[in-house]
Structures are given as C-alpha cells and as structure tokens.
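Example: Glycosyl transferase.
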Amino acid sequence: MGKHSLSVILITKNEADRVVACLQSVATIADEIIVLDSGSTDETVTICQEYTDNVSITDWPGFGKQKQRALDKATCDWVLSIDADEALDADMQQALVALLDQDVIEPTAYKLPWGVTLYGKTLKYGRSARSVLRLFKREGSRYTLDEVHETVIPVEGSIGSLSGLLLHYTHRDYGHGLDKSSQYAWLGAQKYHRKGKRSHGLGLALLRAIWTFFHIYILRRGFMDGSVGFIMAMTYAQVNFNKYVGLWLLEKGRS
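Written out as structure tokens, the predicted fold is:
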C-alpha cells in the first residue's frame, strides 16, 4: 500500500444488488474496510464478508450516529467514507493511490466530485454538479449526529479536491427514488423540529419548492441534463416542499 494507510467505512442495509461495485472499487486501495450493517435481510452481509472480516451487525441509530460508530472503529491514517450505492471511477482510484503515496499530504480533507448516475445518465449539472467531503485524516475528525444529511467535521486545515468521479447510483428505479425522497423529507422535518427551526407556514413551503426548482434547473443549469435534469429538479423541489409541510404539521402537533 501507499505511504499513508487508508480505512474505508461503509454502512449498509439490503444493498446486495449494489454493494459489489462499491467494494470492488476500493478493495485494492484500502488497508482496512469497516462495514456496519443494520439488519440486512438479503445477501449484503455475506457479500461484504468476502471483502473484509470487519463486518458488524448493529441497530439503527440514524445516519450520523451510525457513521460515527464506523469511524470509531477505523485505525488508519486516512478515512474514506463511501455509501453502498457509490463507487470510485478508475480516474479517482488512480488519484487516491497517488495521493496516499505522497511523502506529505498538506490538506486534512478532500472533496470528491460526485457523478450522480440514474436512468442511464451521469448528470453533470444541477445539484449533481457538486463535490462531497468524504476523504479525511482520521485523527481529530468526527461526524455530526444528525438523523439525515450528516456531515463530517474534519480536523482543522485546508480542503483539497480529488480528481475523477465518485459515481453515485442514487436510485434503483423511479419507485425507489420516490421512497427515498419521502423518507429524507420526513427525516429532515424531524431534524429541523428537534433543532427548533420554524416552518413559517405552508405558503413559504410552496415558495421554497419553487425556488429550489429554479435554483437547480435554471441557475445551476439542470436543463443541460435533458429530461433527467428536469425530473431531478422537480424531485428536489418536492422534497423541500414535503420537508417544510412536515415541519409545519409537527409544530401544530398534527404529525
């Protein structure tokens, strides 16, 4: 391996149809792969055990707490946090190998450009045209303990960007996309309610949805991704609307 060691952390549940591509993309780079599974009923655990002997079966405390549990098990210099529906493309694999073989790595964390891939298309615009912080020095880093949309807080220092793409196969099909969207909207509503954020009414929920669509489809040029770009802009708008409706209902005690 390189001059710097790498832990890969992964949380799973019923990902047998997608986790192989994920694990294959990191198997030759990682010094250790840590998997926390929250009760899969398919072959996910068996598949993961083919790549690592560090597989734990746990309860489900929420995304942030579960990823912190995985981070707590890591022992290497650097940590790559990857989801079961993601995989490093060949360019990113090479970039990561080269990075870990450097004598000194100045940044304390790296953002990975996302390659959201769904309905047969890898999106280049809209909200998909962003990078996510997934590679970081282990010592001193931690996760926020949010139910959803958790973030890692790396040790203080500069943040770099890795070349290549972190491919993200976000939906198995449209029905799966709808299920995920509704789940994230409700979890987001609960998170905001717990943190004391206010909805300011249903009218503002509608305006937020309209703004989300405009921001993603027009300002971030989601229209350049064709019909799939339109679908994604509408999906994000719907999620934002549902999240604030959920928050409004929680405020009224009608959830």
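The helical segments are 19-26, 44-49, 63-73, 90-100, 174-194, 202-219, 226-252.
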